[in-house]
Specification:
The complex is a heterodimer of chains A (163) and B (159). Chain A is built from 9 helices and no strands. With 163 residues, chain A is an all-alpha fold. Chain A has one domain. Chain B has one domain. Helices cover 82% and strands 0% of the residues of chain B. The chains are: A mainly alpha (163), B mainly alpha (159). At the A-B interface, helix 3, helix 4, helix 5 and helix 9 of A face helix 3, helix 4 and helix 7 of B.
């Protein structure tokens, strides 16, 4: 069975059809997906800006990270669940959209970007988090995160415009 | 000159034709709109969780408000500028839309609240602890800004 025919089957399951045709649930799910940007991407952007010393430079970066993560992670949880439901309800069109594919690819790359940070720079945060010179690799990771999240938001908007 | 004339002039303008006729101009501008909203609402989430006494407690309110405020204003300005560009190609449609009207009223109330009341509260020494007044102000700010965002999303649902 091809991915496309699987998507076709998925969006025609009773509950996917139910979401798509609901005047109540579709707006609630889509609205939550957009408003939860503030909790997920909004908070990660602030941490990226801190890594670049553009916000709260006087506070240690690990302190900001400890404060941001308990809110950002549930935020990403909401994004994942609502995004998944939106995909189910229009799986065939979404899978066929170039913007959706770019969005998924960038989300994977953002995940890798975050993992590289966790492995390579998180353990040594104490050494540089309060200094004025942030390792070049950390700056690259923060800029990549900021740029990719902007493009992810744009891809989400563009794919919805075409659906 | 009535608002209707203004909308018609805007609709007839050739410069604005470019926005209207390009397939991707509007959704690309809307992407910047969303990015501004993300920055603004993200900032509001941080400041208000702190004011509610349930998040970001290790960071002093004075530093938070001083450092986060400019990013909130930047996000707001980006959202307003891009919002105007989405509005001008089709002003009559938006002006007639109840979700859009709700959004504009909520936006005016939110901005007034933010500059007249909220800013004073987060910059006063009394912002450090979660007093009843601080909780009320934080809930008011969150409700107003998320209402603006939600009404904005609802514009499309009301056609």
């Amino acid at each position: 069975m091809s991915v496309l025919s699987w998507c076709h089957w998925l969006q025609n399951t009773p509950w996917a059809t139910g979401i798509r045709q609901s005047d109540l649930w579709f707006p609630i799910i889509e609205g939550s997906h957009i408003l939860a940007l503030s909790l997920s991407v909004g908070l990660i952007l602030m941490f990226d800006l801190r890594l670049l010393r553009l916000v709260l430079p006087a506070e240690p970066a690990s302190k900001i990270m400890r404060q941001v993560m308990p809110w950002a992670l549930p935020g990403f949880g909401i994004m994942f669940v609502t995004g998944g439901l939106l995909f189910f309800s229009q799986a065939e069109k979404a899978y066929s959209s170039g913007f959706f594919r770019v969005k998924m690819l960038l989300l994977v790359l953002l995940g890798v970007n975050a993992l590289v940070y966790q492995w390579k720079f998180y353990p040594s945060m104490a050494e540089w988090e309060s200094s004025e010179t942030v390792p070049r690799g950390v700056q690259v990771i923060a800029v990549v995160s900021l740029a990719f999240w902007m493009v992810v938001i744009a891809c989400g908007r563009l794919m919805a415009y075409e659906l | 000159m009535s608002l209707q004339h203004l909308w018609q002039m805007s609709y007839d303008s050739h410069t604005i034709d470019i926005l209207r006729n390009s397939k991707y101009a509007i959704p690309v501008i809307q992407s910047f709109h969303l990015f501004g909203i993300t920055l603004l609402l993200g900032s509001m989430v941080i400041l208000n969780l702190r004011l509610l006494g349930i998040g970001f407690l290790q960071l002093p309110m004075a530093a938070l408000s001083r450092q986060i405020w400019p990013w909130a204003i930047g996000g707001l300005l980006l959202a307003i500028a891009s919002g105007i560009l989405v509005f001008v190609p089709d002003p009559a449609r938006y002006a007639a839309n109840y979700a859009f009207r709700t959004k504009m009223v909520a936006l005016c109330v939110a901005v007034t609240f933010q500059f007249l009341i909220y800013r004073k509260v987060i910059r006063s020494g009394a912002a450090e602890s979660a007093s009843r007044r601080n909780i009320a102000v934080a809930c008011g700010s969150l409700l107003l800004w998320f209402l603006v965002g939600w009404a904005g999303r609802a514009i499309a649902f009301l056609g």
